[in-house]
């Protein structure tokens, strides 16, 4: 009986570890959190591999990202690009771009204005 209990405990621990490993593997290395501290509502957001010729789809779709809001951005596990460009647009189509963000090293991007100039900090 004691050996059966020990076996079941070990089996349960391995099951929990396997589920945790699957959850980590499901996350892409490029996933990051975007924090809008610009004071402006973002109406369009594009995140594209640095070597791409076009921006692709607006990942906000019909939504917007208000100032002080946070958005978690997730990538497909199969995505391999290291460097990415980011573009935001306001309701008038005015835009700001950041180039060559190393999303393999970055987990959080905070966008803001400093001295009237758009800037970003990364963590």
List keywords for this structure.
single chain, alpha+beta, 36% strand, globular, Immunoglobulin-like, 123 residues
Q: What is shown here, in short?
A:
This protein is α+β, with helices and mostly antiparallel strands and 123 residues long.
- Second CATH tier, the architecture: Sandwich
> In percent, how helical is the residue content?
10-25%
Biggest sheet: strands side by side, in what order? 3-1-6-7
How many domain regions? 1
Q: Label the overall shape.
A: globular
Order of helices and strands: HEEEEEEE
The tally of helices reads 1
In angstroms, what is the radius of gyration?
Answer: 20 Å
**CATH-wise, what's the superfamily?**
Domain of unknown function DUF5300
Q: CATH fold name, please?
A: Immunoglobulin-like
Average pLDDT rating: 82
The secondary structure category is alpha+beta
Low-pLDDT runs of 5+ residues are 11-26
What summary fits the major beta sheet?
4 strands, mixed
């Amino acid at each position: 009986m004691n050996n059966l209990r020990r076996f079941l405990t070990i089996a349960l621990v391995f099951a929990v570890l396997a589920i945790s490993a699957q959850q980590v593997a499901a996350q892409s290395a490029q996933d990051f959190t975007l924090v809008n501290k610009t004071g402006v509502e973002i109406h369009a957001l594009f995140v594209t591999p640095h070597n791409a010729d076009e921006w692709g789809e607006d990942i906000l779709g019909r939504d917007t990202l208000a100032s002080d809001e946070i958005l978690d951005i997730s990538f497909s596990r199969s995505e391999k690009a290291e460097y990415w460009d980011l573009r935001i647009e306001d309701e008038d189509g005015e835009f700001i771009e950041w180039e060559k963000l190393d999303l393999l090293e970055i987990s959080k991007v905070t966008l803001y204005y400093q001295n009237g100039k758009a800037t970003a900090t990364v963590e």
